[in-house]
Amino acid sequence: MKLRSTLGACLGALTLVLSLSGSAQAAEGNFHYKYVDGHGQEQYATLHDPHSGKCINLYAVGDDDDLPGYGPHNQTDTPVTVYVNANCSGPEWRLKANGAPAKDTLEVRSVRFDAP
C-alpha cells in the first residue's frame, strides 16, 4: 500500500513539474521608446518584462497610419528585433540585450524579443 501511495505522489509531482515548463517566457527588464502624441508632445513608453517570441505592436505607434515611435532602448536581458512597420514587417534592426539607446532616427512600430 505504501508503494502505491509513494508512486502516486511521485507521478503527481512529475505532472506538476511538466505543466509548469510550458508557461510563457518573458524578457526581464524594460524596453523604452519615444513617440509624439496627438498634441505634438514627445512622450515616453515602456514595456516591462515583455513577452518573448511573439510580435508586439507598440502602444500609440503600432498602426501603420500612426506616426512611428523612435529612439528605442533595450534594457532587457534579451536581444530584440525592431521593425519599421506594424506586425513585425518591413525593414528591421537588431538591438542587443542591455544595449545603449538607439538614435532618434531609428523608427519603430513593432518588436519581437528572442525566445529563450
Features:
116 residues; alpha+beta; Gamma-B Crystallin, domain 1; 4-stranded antiparallel beta sheet; 8 strands; 16% helix; globular; signal; Secreted protein
Shape: globular
Question: Largest sheet, described in full?
Answer: 4 strands, antiparallel
- Outline the low-pLDDT stretches: 5-23
Number of structural domains: 1
Number of helices: 1
Distance between the termini: 43 Å
Q: Order of helices and strands, N to C? A: HEEEEEEEE
- Derived structural class: alpha+beta
User: Could you please say which CATH topology applies here?
Assistant: Gamma-B Crystallin, domain 1
Mean pLDDT: 86
What value does the Rg take, in angstroms?
20 Å
Signal peptide: 1-26
Protein name: Secreted protein
Keywords: Signal
What's this entry about, in short?
With 116 residues, the chain is α+β, with helices and mostly antiparallel strands. The protein has one helix spanning 2-20, and strands at 29-36, 42-48, 55-57, 69-76, 80-85, 89-95, 107-108, 110-113. This is Secreted protein.
